[in-house]
Amino acid sequence: MTLTRSMGRLTVGLVGAALLSAAFSAQARELSVSTVLSEAFPWGQAAEKWAELVEERSDGELTLRVYPNSQLVSGDQTREFSAMRSGLIDAAVGSTINWSPQVPELNLFSLPFFIPDEAAVDAVTGGEAGEMVFEAIESRGVIPLAWGENGFRQVSNSRGPIAAPDDLDGLKIRVVGSPLFQDTFNALGADPTQMSWTDAQPALTTGAVDGQENPLSVFDVARIDQVGQQHLTLWNYMNDPLIFAVNQQVWQTLSEEQQTLLRETALEAGEWETAMTREQESERLAAIQERGVTVTELTDEQYQTFVDATQSVYEKWAPRIGESLVEAAQTAIDGR
Ligand code: X2X
User: What is the pTM of this model?
Assistant: First the structure.
């Protein structure tokens, strides 16, 4: 009887505290931020930078706590967006690839050989197409704040140099994200298999898969060369932007001042990380080559054979992404 009564009081106390904190959103508040990669990588550093800037400027009112390695979704990175939308995660610095199963518009960035260089990335994310992508995210219950960059993705494998689609023939390639990746690698004659980053590393080590695709920073930091990936082809087949975002209900409980703070610091952290990622590319490539990895660069003609081989993917996916979005991106790319 006494126990029941005191438990009742405790419950009332907890509920009261929750109500109080919701009512006075200006009081100290901690938000969880999910990332796939840790601070050993530029991606994790982007989230840490965001947290640092918020810490510095909020006088302890607002804290971002970063949870790396997809731990808030038990390693299943393609569930990150759903978890953020449902409020299981407050915020994230996430990849367009990992969120594309829930936000089909994000497949724009995964269209093979569509966004060829950094100027094209900036023209797309910084213009009308970028706004359309942000609207698509917001319409699904998540507030996007800023862009970052995981980088241009390059393909590696353990068998031999890749300079033509034929060289991918039958190779088991680990991919992640939406079915678009299956289509791209099938079109190239490879044998793609979808798995999380957590599962990818053991699969490369045991030889269960022959190859993978990731930006140079990931190849370098994760020491992909040590798991048998001795051949790397620079083909810039897609760029993988990162997006800083917050759950909509959480956003609405923040004061206007806190919202401005979160947005400004996300923009700053994103610009900082994008510039750093790009600056480090050449030294990373040199480090990878020094470890004995064979690096293949494509001639214009070789590049074109990959573009031609994946044309069907563009045709199948442009309508799913939205023709008007693809057109806006194309216009931005042409005008860069
Ligand atoms: O899983 C990957 O390949 C990674 C780490 O690049 C992403 O999360 C998209």
Answer: 0.92
Average pLDDT of span 318-326: 98
Residue 1 alpha carbon to ligand 1 centre in Å: 54
Percent of the chain with pLDDT over 70: 92
Pocket of ligand 1 (CB under 6 A): 36-37, 77, 95, 97-98, 150, 176, 197, 214, 218, 240
Query: What is the pLDDT averaged over residues 220-235?
Result: 97
Strand pairing category for 142-157 and 211-215: antiparallel
Å from CA of 214 to ligand 1 middle: 7
Alpha helices in the chain (DSSP H): 2-23, 42-57, 80-86, 96-99, 118-125, 128-138, 180-187, 197-206, 216-221, 248-253, 256-290, 300-309, 311-321, 323-334
For residue 143, what are the domain limits? 30-334
Q: Does a structural domain hold residue 14?
A: no
Total domain count for the chain?
1
- How far, in Å, from the CA of 92 to the mean position of ligand 1? 14
The 10 Å CB-count burial string (b at 16+, else e) for 40-67 is ebbbbbbbbbbbebbeeebeebbebebb
Q: What is the pLDDT of residue 3?
A: 45
- Structure confidence by residue, pLDDT tens digits, 238-276: 999 999 999 999 999 999 999 999 999 999 999 999 999
